[in-house]
Amino acid sequence: MKKITKQTYLDWYKDMLFWRKFEDKLASVYIQQKVRGFLHLYNGQEAILAGALHAMDLSKDKMITAYRNHVQPIGMGEDPKKVMAELYGKVTGTSKGMGGSMHIFSKEFRFYGGHGIVGGQIPLGAGLAFADKYKGSDAVTLTCFGDGAARQGSLHEAFNMAMLWKLPVIFIVENNGYAMGTSVDRTANHTDIWKLGLGYEMPCGPVDAMNPIKVAEAVDEAIQRARRGDGPTFLEMKTYRYRGHSMSDAQHYRTKDEVEEYKKIDPITQVLDVIKEKNYATEEEIDAINKEVKRMVRECEKFAEDSPYPEPQQLYDMVYEQKDYPFIS
Ligand SMILES: Cc1ncc(C[n+]2csc(CCOP(=O)(O)OP(=O)(O)O)c2C)c(N)n1
Ligand SMILES: [Mg+2]
């Protein structure tokens, strides 16, 4: 793995702060009804992405996840202006405004969605890894899903095949404690989700996912295993989301104190504390990063606001048509 240096900390701070503020902006424009439909935010979980990206080779590795998916493509290299435009439903968006919040996709940067069916992406991630192995590439696919998705049957089928065929895939459960309003301990008799890997003899374990270093180390070990041809790993990222499940969530299932407890170990604050302790940046330099992040968010917002909506005709551009389809007269 690349060394974790002063620059890594500064990059982590800037990136995670940008993702946080980008999504805070989305929350505020959602209330103004400029962004519609569902909106699931990643606030609190950023260390998973920051740490994973540090360990990945972004020239070939792939990622697939669920609907909490706005910042991952940005981390992989996609233009954040295009991601925000997609959320606004504008033609300049990553899917020409036709995907929206739950369906960000960037083939160019190997980000494969953006999936609304809970657990649906688990076998798809195994399939991406199968394609790489079949073609003789040593790329690795990170397949991310929530604690709720870990209870889906598709996980077991994917785990079994991934182990049988030693696929280059890392299964990552982002355990943020809740599936909508249902806490992990109400969905199964055991709460160590990583232990699901044991039944398949898949290397597995828990990770402190409020800290990007711990994530980077765990993902690096898993990536090395996959690249050598030794198959999959299952990691349980112990994390937390600060906001509700989606925007309309009264959050009766948890206390404000619980949220505040997690904010004490916030990943951005943890990284900033190290920067300050080790004198990696002066107060002025930190302030300059904060200002630059604000400017970047404003730039995304302006781009999305100024972009046009798609023409109605676009609806027919992406419909699959087979002229000789046999069953329709
Ligand atoms: C197959 C399926 N069942 C139910 C739903 C409704 N649903 C949407 S999100 C969600 C909770 C999933 O929680 P989790 O996997 O923990 O992800 P998180 O939202 O915490 O990131 C449910 C049940 C769905 N989208 N798909
Ligand atoms: Mg969850």
Automatic annotation (TrEMBL):
The keyword Protein transport does not apply. SUPFAM superfamilies: Thiamin diphosphate-binding fold (THDP-binding). CDD domains: TPP_E1_PDC_ADC_BCADC (cd02000). The keyword Oxidoreductase applies. GO terms for molecular function: pyruvate dehydrogenase (acetyl-transferring) activity. GO terms for biological process: pyruvate decarboxylation to acetyl-CoA. It holds the Pfam family E1_dh. The pyruvate dehydrogenase complex catalyzes the overall conversion of pyruvate to acetyl-CoA and CO(2). This is Pyruvate dehydrogenase E1 component subunit alpha. It comes from Polaribacter glomeratus.
